[in-house]
Design goal:
It is a single chain. By secondary structure, the protein is an alpha/beta fold. It is built from 13 helices and 12 strands. A 6-stranded parallel sheet has the order 2-1-3-4-5-11, sandwiched between helices. The chain has a 4-stranded parallel sheet with strand order 7-6-8-9, sandwiched between helices. Helix 8 packs parallel to helix 9. Residues about 340-345 have low confidence and may be disordered.
């Protein structure tokens, strides 16, 4: 049976480009689209695809649920990379993607009803309020589901190793002589809980007694909250060597607060983010962060869901843990090499 891969090979394009052409997307050239459509017709792909759908009773359509607290949509740098990888992997298996927007859960129709209406073969929950009863209804339904960065006992999950990631990042900071480490964490989710665990583990292994007054709540992907919380930390009048931020994008607010106080990064105070988005490497100083493997997260989530859809009786409902990488930027001072640096107490 002819697949998108076969058409891509014949036309000398990617599988994703073939999928765009055959699904009427407008973000490819007209000449390329016509070439692909002609090849598909000549190779009998459309007829085969219809026959496959009838034979398997599938739509070859995957739903993706993405709802973040800031309503940033696909402008969210971290998730945009996850979603792009997810989409490419799904298309390589011959599946299309339907994004389920925020409105899907409003009114009388919940997420489950929306999925049934769209006729999706399965759903990937990339970001959502996992305590929402409508999410629970979807997870407990007959619809195949894979979650990203959240674990339900009855579903497959693909998660970043947030405990190890934050532990590595905090240990790196401590090894450079920092003892008074503040942490502005994100909303109370399983991701946040895991990162807090990694943070406290690293402090304990370094022999550092945590100051809970320096561990304060913030919001993911929200520079304004980080700006306010950074000022609140400085106003405590406590000694602070370094501030950890919820993510790289949120760090921008903290950076602004520090600069407005006349503090140099890292000479006067160090800082670090999380996620490892491209922004971290282009700001000055380059941000020390922990890069999550967004490509692997999206790819594994899509591959797992396709496996569940096509082999429901033999697929294990397990958890895949994806490792990341520490990125040494320029925002964490090595105080061991600079013993003459005076400790700063903020007033």
């Amino acid at each position: 049976m002819i697949s998108m891969k076969d058409i891509a090979k014949r036309c000398g394009v990617s599988v994703a480009t073939v999928s765009k052409a055959l699904n009427g997307r407008q973000d490819i050239g007209e000449a390329t689209k016509e070439k692909i459509e002609r090849a598909a017709a000549e190779m009998g792909y459309l007829a085969n695809a219809s026959a496959r759908a009838l034979k398997t009773n599938r739509t070859y359509n995957i739903g993706v649920l993405f709802v973040d607290a800031q309503n940033s949509g696909f402008a969210h740098e971290y998730f945009s990379f996850v979603l792009e990888s997810l989409k490419t992997e799904a298309e390589s298996h011959g599946y299309d993607i339907t994004f389920l927007n925020r409105g899907a859960g409003n009114g009388n129709a919940g997420y489950l009803q929306h999925c049934r209406y769209k006729g999706v073969d399965g759903v990937i929950i990339a970001s959502a309020d996992f305590s929402d009863p409508q999410i629970r209804e979807l997870v407990d339904s007959e619809v195949p589901v894979v979650t990203i960065d959240h674990v339900f006992n009855n579903r497959v999950a693909v998660v970043s190793d947030n405990v190890n990631g934050m532990e590595q990042l905090t240990r790196y900071i401590a090894e450079r002589g920092h003892r008074k480490i503040a942490y502005i964490y994100g909303e109370k989710t399983s991701v946040t809980e895991n990162r807090l665990t990694g943070f406290y583990r690293a402090l304990e292994s370094a022999g550092i007694t945590p100051d809970d007054d320096l561990v304060v709540p913030g919001t993911y992907h929200d520079p304004e909250t980080s700006f306010r919380q950074t000022n609140a930390l400085l106003a405590k009048g406590k000694e602070i060597d370094c501030i950890l931020y919820p993510d790289d994008y949120s760090y921008l607010g903290g950076m602004r607060a520090l600069q407005e106080k006349g503090l140099r990064i890292p000479e006067d105070i160090s800082a670090a983010g999380y996620d490892g988005i491209p922004l971290a490497s282009v700001i000055s100083p380059r941000l020390t962060t922990f890069r999550q493997d967004t490509d692997a997260l999206g790819r594994e989530a899509a591959a797992k869901l396709v496996e569940i859809i096509e082999h429901p009786k033999t697929t294990l409902l397990d958890r895949t843990v994806v490792q990341g990488t520490l990125v040494e930027g320029e925002s964490v001072l090595n105080k061991i090499k600079s013993p003459e640096k005076e400790q700063i107490i903020f007033r």
